[in-house]
Amino acid sequence: MLELCISRGILIGAASLSQTQLLALWQQGEAQPLKPTSSEVLGPFFRKGAPDNRLLRAPGDPGFPLLVRGKVCDTRGRLIEGAKIDLWHADHYGLYDTKGYRYRTRISPDAQGLYAVDTVLPGHYPDRPAQHIHYLISAPGHKTLITQAYFATDPYFDGDPERNWNKSNIVHNKDLVLPVRLFEGATGGAPHAEITFDLILEQA
């Protein structure tokens, strides 16, 4: 396709590059691996045995509604079969359910490698003052990933996450501070926030 576009003048290369060189550069760009998702600490509140639940937010729950979505793939962008995602976070008040499974789930991505969880924005608590969601992702033939998602809108970053992402050494990787999209909601629907967190695993 690239060769045909060049020959028809649809794609114009620099005069110093031949068709062969342009094809080689194209293929080199296509072969660039994706950066694996940065890891973070597991934390003390992980619990095994969470149910497969895509709706963690119950009617009347305090807190701002949040949709967390993304995909799971390898460093070549390929779908990973058999992946499992443990996801958990504190409630609106910064408290974890350590006896049950509120705001905890263990899910599998769908046939396209996509996942989505409907929940609420987690609260703050003294030991980890930045809002965050914990992840533990496992898949056959791949390294287990332990990571966290943070929010660029968090007041903890003083309105400037680019500058303050490493404040007090709470967040260890800038790329884990994610943009937050705010939606007013459909007719009669409640406003909500959304983040997209793609999980890229390394082969074992």
Describe this structure in words.
With 204 residues, this protein is α/β, with parallel strands linked by helices. The protein folds into 2 domains: 2-31, no CATH class; 65-201, Protocatechuate 3,4-Dioxygenase, subunit A. Helices cover 11% and strands 26% of the residues. Strands 1, 4, 8, 9 and 10 form a 5-stranded mixed beta sheet that branches. It has a 5-stranded mixed beta sheet with strand order 3-2-5-6-7, with no helix packed on it. The chain is globular and about 60 Å long.
The CATH homologous superfamily of the largest domain corresponds to: Aromatic compound dioxygenase
Distance between the termini: 35 Å
Write down how many β-strands occur, each being a DSSP E stretch of 2 or more residues.
10
Radius of gyration: 21 Å
Mean pLDDT: 89
Number of helix segments?
3
Taking the sheet with the most strands, its summary is: 5 strands, mixed
Helix content: 10-25%
Percentage beta strand: 25-35%
Shape: globular
The CATH architecture term of the largest domain is Sandwich
* Uncertain segments: 1-15
What is the helix/strand order? HHEEEEEEHEEEE
Task: Count structural domains.
Answer: 2
CATH classification, class level of the largest domain:
Mainly Beta
CATH topology of the largest domain: Protocatechuate 3,4-Dioxygenase, subunit A
Please state the structural category: alpha/beta
